[in-house]
Automatic annotation (TrEMBL):
InterPro entries in alphabetical order: HotDog_dom_sf (IPR029069), THEM4/THEM5_acyl-CoA_thioest (IPR052365), Thioestr_dom (IPR006683)
Keywords for this protein: Apoptosis, Cell membrane, Cell projection, Cytoplasm, Fatty acid metabolism, Hydrolase, Lipid metabolism, Membrane, Transit peptide
Pfam families per UniProt: 4HBT
Protein name: Acyl-coenzyme A thioesterase THEM4
UniProt organism field: Prauserella oleivorans
Start and end residues of each stretch annotated as Disordered: 1-33
GO molecular function: hydrolase activity
CDD domains in alphabetical order: PaaI_thioesterase (cd03443)
Length: 192
């Protein structure tokens, strides 16, 4: 039984309908930004999470715990596990709804220890939408899609405009990011 607070998603949410141009089932999502700590290939000690669109509005992600991710000897750091879920949940919102969104709230339940060398299989689903707010949750299972649940998480993501990133982030890096995505035929400025 979950120990998390109930009322999730809140009563005023509507079902989340994937964007018509959301990637189809079976699509491997790859990195969304090479410097992203969650998925970027250029971050040596990053999490290198890979995600795929499964079916029925589910996104499955895999995270293998490395030696750079430890808290206690031989065990994953809880904050890094929360990071893995932030990435998996954010990828679910961004890819299925195709809305730029940021994490406003992230809750995690750590159910069992996650050893170095193990792979978390994270399955995330959209729970509902209310105006700019998207509710999304996930379970992470140890070493197999049907392995024991190790971590549960849920997040509230808030849709933002591109100006959120250009105003608060590194404008030059944002510009390069836009150019790389556009050159690859990927979307950059999508409004919901
Ligand atoms: C485009 C195509 C994509 C393609 C594919 C992309 C893939 C992409 C993969 C990304 C994967 C990376 C995933 C990592 C994602 C991060 O880690 S993002 C980094 C961490 N997050 C941040 O830095 C966010 C910092 N916070 C903020 O900037 C602002 O607080 C926010 C969240 C934008 C909200 O500010 P705001 O715009 O002024 O809006 P505000 O009115 O305060 O809040 C809006 C609503 O949310 C509610 N709310 C806000 N915060 C909270 C809270 N903490 N608790 C409860 N409710 C809250 C408000 O009450 C309000 O509700 P309503 O009044 O509408 O009912």
């Amino acid at each position: 039984m979950s120990k998390a607070a109930e009322n999730w998603p809140p009563e005023d949410t509507e079902p989340a309908t994937p964007h018509p141009d959301a990637p189809p089932s079976g699509t491997e999502l790859g990195e969304h930004y090479s410097q992203c700590f969650g998925c970027g290939d250029d971050v040596e000690s990053g999490l290198h999470i890979r995600s795929m669109i499964a079916s029925d509005m589910t996104v499955v992600s895999k995270f293998t715990v490395g030696k750079d991710h430890q808290g206690a000897p031989g065990l994953a750091h809880g904050g890094l596990l929360a990071c893995a879920f932030d990435e998996a949940l954010g990828s679910t919102v961004g890819n299925l709804l195709r809305r730029p969104a940021v994490t406003a709230r992230l809750e995690t339940d750590f159910v069992r220890p996650v050893p170095v060398g193990s792979t978390l299989h994270i399955a995330a689903k959209l729970d509902g939408v209310s105006r700019r707010k998207t509710y999304v949750s996930a379970e992470g299972r140890l070493d197999a899609e049907d392995g024991p649940v190790a971590v549960r998480a849920r997040g509230l993501f808030v849709t933002v405009g591109v100006e959120h990133f250009t105003k608060h982030g590194d404008a030059d890096a944002i510009s390069q990011f836009r150019d790389v995505r556009q050159a690859a035929g990927q979307d950059w400025d999508i409004n919901p």
